[in-house]
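Hello,

Our lab assistant flagged a job as stuck in the queue for most of the afternoon. It eventually completed. Since we weren't sure the result was trustworthy after the delay, we are filing this so someone can double-check. Below is the sequence as submitted and the structure that was eventually returned. Let us know if re-running is recommended.
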Amino acid sequence: MNYEFKPSFDRRFKKLAAERQTRAYEALNALMNYLDRHIELPPGLGLKNWKSDYWEIRTSLKDRILFKYTDHVTFLFIGNHDDLRKFMKKK
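-- returned structure --
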């Protein structure tokens, strides 16, 4: 599986505190291992379909990662649920 990180994701990720970045890395790693068929989907990720090819996972109770899943995975956004909703309204 090919993975891509959009600048919108990178910008927001860099602004996160170190502990939130660590949780995001762990969630990304679990998702990638699942998509590459190495492990089962951990229940704590809370994989959810937003609409068509847009999906989200949880990194914590507060933070979410939005990605587009087609023939490859494009990570678009990281932030809280309200920020993710605002981002999706622009799509």
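-- support follow-up --
The delay was a queue issue, not a problem with the job. The result is valid. DSSP finds three helices and five strands in the chain. Helices lie at 7-15, 18-35, 81-89.
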